[in-house]
Amino acid sequence: MPLRAISREQGWLLPPSVDELVGEDHPARFVAAFVEALDRTALGEMGIDADGEELGAPAYPPRLLLSIWLYGFLRGIRSSRKLEVACREQLPFLWLSGFSHPDHNTLWRFYQTHREQMRRLLKRTVRAAVKLGLVDLALQAVDGTKVMGNAAKDRTYDEEELTQLLERAESAIRDLEAQNTTGGDSPPPSLPPALRKKHTLRQQVETALAQIRTEEEGARINLTDPEAVLLKGRAGYVAGYNAQAMVSPLCRDVAGQSGLVISAAAITTDPDDHRQLVPMIDQARENRGVAVGVTLADAGYHSGENLQACEQAGTPVLMPESQTDSQLADPYHKDAFVYNPDSNIYTCPHGQVLTWRYEKHRVGRSPVQVYRPMGGVCRACPAFGVCTKNRLGRSLEVGPHEQVLRAQRQRRKAAPNQELYRHRKELPEPTFGILKEQLGARRFLLRGKANVAAEWSLLATAFNLRTLSRIWQRRTGREKVRIVGALAA
Q1: Residues 6+ apart with CB under 8 A from 99
Q2: Could you tell me the residue ranges of all domains in the chain?
Q3: With left for phi above 0 and alpha for psi between -120 and 50, is residue 183 left, alpha or beta?
Q4: What is the pLDDT of residue 234?
Q5: How far is Cα 473 from Cα 30, in angstroms, rounded to an integer?
Q6: Which of the two residues, 327 and 465, has the higher pLDDT score?
Q7: Confidence band (pLDDT; 50, 70, 90) for 184?
Q8: Predicted confidence band at 404 (pLDDT cuts at 50, 70, 90)?
Q9: In terms of CATH, what superfamily is 123-150+231-321+418-473?
C-alpha cells in the first residue's frame, strides 16, 4: 500500500484552538471544572487569594496552578520540575495552563505555601461522592501500607553509631583543614566543597545526637529525614512512613461501574496499626458526614481497647485476631468457660467452678484477673492433660476487655458476617496498588511527617478525583454539571 506523506514543516491550515487539544470528556477538563467551581470561601480556606494583588508584576492565576498540581497528582507527577516540563510538552497540561509555561519555582512556591490547606480537598471529594449517592454506606475497610520516605535506610543510626560517625567526621575535617592551610595567605572566600560537606555532616550528626538522647533507649534516627523510621514491609525494611487509608466501595447501581473512594487518609510512624483504628473511623465519619454500617479491619488493628472504644461509640467492626481458627475451636478454649457476673465465677465445660484468686500485673500492659478451681479438682477431671497439665489446675487470665473480645469472636462466627468480611481485601489492597503503580506513590518526595501527611492526603484526593472523573465521563448534560456542582458545594 502507498505511504502517507509526512512533513515536519507543515504549517497550520487554520489557526489552532487551545480548546481542541483535549477531548470533551478528558480528565483534565474535569479537574479544571472542579477548580473553577470552587468559590472564594473555599479557596480562602486554603489560603488562596483568587483575585491577586492590584500592584506588581502579573502573576499566574492561583486556580491555574491548583489545577496543574491536582492533575499532576492524578497523573503521578508530583515534582515541580517535571510539572514544568509537562506544561511545555504534554497537551493536557498545555490546555490546563492555556499555553502559559509556569516554571518550577512558581509551581513549587504555590505548592509549598498551600499544600497543608489543600488537604481540605479530600473531605470535599468524599462529601460530594456521598451527596451524589455514589458511596455504599454499608461498609468500609481500613488498612495501612509502608511507603518509602525521601531518605535512604542506610542513613538510619542509633546513638552509638552516631557518636562513631561524629568522630569520623571531625577527623576528616581536621585532615581537610590541614590540607587547605593557606600558609599565612588570606583565607579563601568560601570553604572547599569537600570541607563544606563534612561541616554539614557534622552539624547534622550533632543535631541528631541531641534529639536521640531525649528519646528512649534503643531509638534510631535518619539523618536525611529525622522523622522517617525503619519499618518492615513486604520487600524488607524501608526508611519511611506507615500510610493509612479508609476505603469505601461505590454503589454500582448508582455509579454505573465498580470503584473505590478513599474516605480518610493519615500518616503515622508507628510500626503497627493498633492505634490507628479509632482515629481513622473518626476521620472517615467527619469527612463523609454520615456513619457507615460496618468497618472491616485486619488483625493488625485487633485489641481489646479498640473493640471497647468502637462499642462505646456505636461503631460495628469486624476483625480477626492473632489466635488461629484451630485455637479458637479448642473445646477447652477460654471462651468455653461460662462467666457468671453475679457471683464472679467461671464454670468449665465439665461443670467445675473457677473463682477469683489474685490480680496479675504485667509491665506495659493492663493487669489481669486470675481465676482457678479448688486444689485437686483438675487432677481428678477426665480432661486433665488436655485442658491443662498444670498440677495446680487450669487458670484463666481475664483482662479488662474480656467481654468485648468474646462478643467480637461470636460476631465473626455468624455466616453473614463471614461473607461480609471477605470483601475486605477487595477494598484497601486494590487502592494501594493503584496509588503505587498508577499514581506513583511508591515513595514520598517530601520530608517530615507533616509534609508527608499533606502529600498522602493529596494522593488520596487525586485517587477520588480519578474515580469521579470516570463517572463524570459516562454522564451527559445536566448530570455532568451536577457532579461538578457537588464537588464545589
Answers
A1: 18
A2: 18-114, 123-150+231-321+418-473, 153-181+189-222, 325-399
A3: left
A4: 79
A5: 9
A6: 465
A7: low
A8: very high
A9: Ribonuclease H-like superfamily/Ribonuclease H (3.30.420.10)
Closest CA to 246 of 321, 145, 118: 145
| pLDDT band, very low/low/confident/very high, at 191 (cuts 50, 70, 90) | low
Judged by DSSP in three states, 233 sits in: strand
Nearest CA to 87 out of 98, 73, 75, 74 is that of: 98
Q: What is the distance between the alpha carbons of residues 432 and 263, in angstroms, rounded to a whole number? A: 14
Query: What whole-number distance in Å separates Cα of residue 137 and Cα of residue 65?
Result: 34
Looking at residues 275-293, what average pLDDT do you find? 94
Cell numbers standing for residue 75: 497523573
Beta-strand ranges (E) seen in 348-395 are: 353-362, 365-372
Task: Retrieve residue 176's grid coordinates.
Answer: 581537610
Dihedral angle computed from the Cα positions of residues 467, 469, 473 and 477, in that order, rounded to the nearest 10 degrees = 130
CA distance 135 to 258: 11
Measured distance CA(487)–CA(38) in Å, rounded = 8
One-letter identity of residue 441: A
DSSP-derived 3-state class of residue 354: strand
What's the average model confidence in pLDDT over 330-343?
92
Distances, alpha carbon 40 to alpha carbons 29, 67, 131, 227, 489, in Å: 20, 15, 21, 35, 12
Which residue type, as a one-letter code, is found at position 277?
Answer: L
Cell of 193: 566543597
- Cell 471497647 belongs to 308
Residue 189 predicted with pLDDT over 60:
no
CA–CA distance, 471 with 485 (Å, rounded to integer): 14
Could you write out the DSSP letters of every residue in 11-73? Answer: PPSS---GGGSS-TT-HHHHHHHHHHH--HHHHHHTT--SS--SSSS----HHHHHHHHHHHH
The pTM assigned to this predicted structure is 0.89
The per-residue b/e assignment along 174-193, b for 16 or more CB within 10 angstroms, e otherwise, is eebeeeeeeeeeeeeeebee
State the residue for C-alpha cell 487569594: 49
**Looking at this protein, which amino acid is placed at residue 464?**
N
Amino acid code (one letter) for 106: T
Q: What's the CA gap between 67 and 63, in Å, rounded?
A: 6
Q: With CA atoms as reference, report the closest residue to 27 among 73, 89, 62.
A: 73
Query: What is the C-alpha to C-alpha distance for residues 148 and 420, in angstroms, rounded to an integer?
Result: 32
Q: For residue 337, which phi and psi values (nearest 5 degrees)? A: -95, 125
Directed axis angle between helix 449-473 and helix 62-74, to 10°?
80
Helix-helix angle 80-89:104-114, to 10 degrees: 130
